[in-house]
Amino acid sequence: MTQKTHLYDLDFPALTHFVTELGEPKFRARQIWNWLYTQYVADVSEMANLPKELRVRLATAVSLNTGKIVVKQESSDNQTSKVLFQLPDGQYIETVLMKYAKRRTLCISTQAGCAMGCVFCATGQMGFFRNLTSGEIVQQVLYFARELAAEGEHVTNIVMMGMGEPLHNYDQTLTAVDRLITTDGFNLGARKITISTVGLVPAIRRYAAEGRQTPLAVSLHAATDEERNKLIPVNKRWPIAELLDACREYVIKTGRRITFEWALINGENDTLDQAHALGSLLKGLICHVNLIPLNPTEGYGGRPSSREQVDAFQAALASYGVSSTVRVRRGIDIQAGCGQLRDRHTIELRRKLPKDSIQS
Of 107, 114, 121, 338, which residue is the catalytic one? Predict the structure, then answer.
């Protein structure tokens, strides 16, 4: 059986080549592109301005199914939705929609699992399976774009902060970003898409050299190597001094502010010593700190910081001229918060199986 072409994996030049290889005129590519990225159709049969014969041919030659929905959950306040997708090869990823007063923000996965092993992150606890293709990344956005359009709304922001390390899957992640910001396609502003990283220094330098307008967020979480090594194993490869040098390079080359993410863990990295160490590190750098009281995960026993400790930490940063905000926690009741995404479906299936039926 001939393998179908996944249309979401094609940029416009590749789509044009594909269409002409079918013996169709080039303008058909523009029609298909518009159906995909401005109308958000889920099936080629919906592409009404294509000849019926072409739609029949496309139905046998292409696929728009880069993943099927296994579970969809809504938070108790109806402000957060989470979808578990099963990919064609059986891998699973989670994607989140967060609704705010004026924003509709998507948290997108870039890998099935994650190789970084951050101890407080549910995705890191499950290990790494594979990179996603650009189409599998884009498809998550278009699923929710289609859902929001039915309600007269649209995606306003995207954060590449779901399952996986985006810069570990650099080419596919940035290819997906380029497709989403195409002005004659999905047309989301580049500054509305944030790329997150735990600190892959060579990739940050590459990102800076490319002069991209998409904002960069670095998951720092500790201000000394001793503390960061406990939380984020990659720090042993690229310690804080080297990471901060790359961050300064990013700011200098792009002229853009950089964001640092900090999951506040009670008694671990929420102390005043850590706050002052962080303030000293960041003083004078064009940056902002997102403070996130730790979200609970099954594989880590840490607890979130108290309100009083959060306030004290924030005040200490302010004394160094470092701005910060405390992120509103969303979707905690459905494990949709920062650091909580994980393939629980497979885990639950394995738990239900007799022990002697599970092979390593």
Answer: 338
With both helix axes pointing from N to C terminus, report the angle between 240-254 and 201-209 in degrees, rounded to the nearest 10: 10
Q: Clarify whether 118 is annotated catalytic.
A: no
Q: Computed from CA positions of residues 25, 30, 32, 33, in that sequence, does the dihedral angle turn out positive or negative?
A: positive
The verdict on whether 121 is a catalytic residue reads no
* Tens place of pLDDT per residue across the chain (360 aa): 468 899 999 999 999 999 999 999 999 999 999 999 999 998 999 999 999 999 999 999 998 876 788 888 888 888 889 899 999 888 999 999 999 989 999 999 999 999 999 888 877 788 899 999 999 999 999 999 999 999 999 999 999 999 999 999 999 999 999 999 999 999 999 999 999 999 999 999 999 999 999 999 999 999 999 999 999 999 999 999 999 999 999 999 999 999 999 999 998 899 999 999 999 999 999 999 999 888 766 766 778 889 999 999 999 999 999 999 997 765 455 554 465 445 555 555 444 434 443 332
Q: What is the amino acid identity at position 156?
A: T
Q: Which residues contact 142 (CB under 8 A, 6 or more apart)?
A: 8, 36, 37, 40, 186
CB 194 within 8 A of CB 338: no
Measured CA to CA, the distance from residue 283 to residue 272 in angstroms comes to 16
What's the predicted TM-score (pTM) here?
0.91
In the chain, what are the domains?
5-63 (1.10.150.530), 68-350 (3.20.20.70)
Q: Across-strand partners of 47? A: none
Q: Which of 24, 94, 136, 165 is catalytic?
A: 94
Of 67, 158, 143, the closest CA to residue 343 belongs to 67
Residue pair 322/279 in contact by the 8 Å Cβ criterion? yes
Cβ density class 46-67: b for 16+ within 10 Å, e for less: ebeebeeebeebbeebbbbebb
**Pair 334, 298: CB distance under 8 Å:** no
Tokens of 292: 């996130």
